[in-house]
Amino acid sequence: MNAADFIGLELTDEPHRWRLPVVRGNSSGIGALFGGAGLAAAIEAMERTTGRPLVWATAQYLSFARSPSVVDIEVVEAAAGHKVSQVRATGHVGDKEIFTVNAALGRRSFDGSGSWAVPPEVPPPEACPVRPIWGPCL
Q1: In angstroms, rounded to a whole number, what is the distance separating the alpha carbons of residues 132 and 58?
Q2: What's the average model confidence in pLDDT over 84-99?
Q3: Domain presence at residue 123
Q4: Residue 31 belongs to a domain with what CATH number?
Q5: Which residues contact 85 (CB under 8 A, 6 or more apart)?
Q6: Residue 95 placed within a domain
Q7: pTM of the full predicted structure?
Q8: Is 124 part of any domain?
């Protein structure tokens, strides 16, 4: 299964427009689209639209998309360089903007590798208190 199938992303008749139905599998217990699902859908749409792999991305979440709505995602390649493109994807439900994702996509020549941050020591999941679920599950 690929990423688009996993999150439910669908291509429209226009190659830079995509659809993401908000369903139980990509939404929270209150029926709102998970932010990570919106970010993943935008990244997948940007990669497929430009044919370039992700370098980095950041998202602004502006509103909620609730089930059973459909988020329409438009991809705009704002600047296309020889190796990297600057790309923006916006997600709307009707006239309401839900999120905006800005990203760089392409190939970089960078020989560096490794980790530069040391994660904190934390207890394993089974040693943590149970987190309550807010609202009804769908």
Answers
A1: 28
A2: 97
A3: no
A4: 2.40.160.210
A5: 50, 52, 77, 78, 79, 104, 105, 106
A6: yes
A7: 0.80
A8: no
**Closest to 136 in 3D by CA, of 67, 87, 70:** 67
Over range 63-90, report the average pLDDT: 96
Residue 68 lies in a domain: yes
Both tokens assigned to 55: 């370098």
**Rounded distance between C-alpha atoms, residue 52 and residue 33, angstroms:** 26
> What is the rounded CA–CA span in Å between residue 62 and residue 34?
13
Counted domains in the chain: 1
Q: Which two tokens stand for residue 125?
A: 């999941």
Whole-angstrom distance, CA of residue 99 vs CA of residue 28: 16
Instruction: Show Cβ contacts of residue 103 under 8 Å, excluding neighbours closer than 6 positions.
Output: 42, 43, 46, 54, 55, 56, 57, 58, 86, 87, 88, 89
What's the domain range around 15?
3-108
Top-confidence residue, 2 or 60: 60
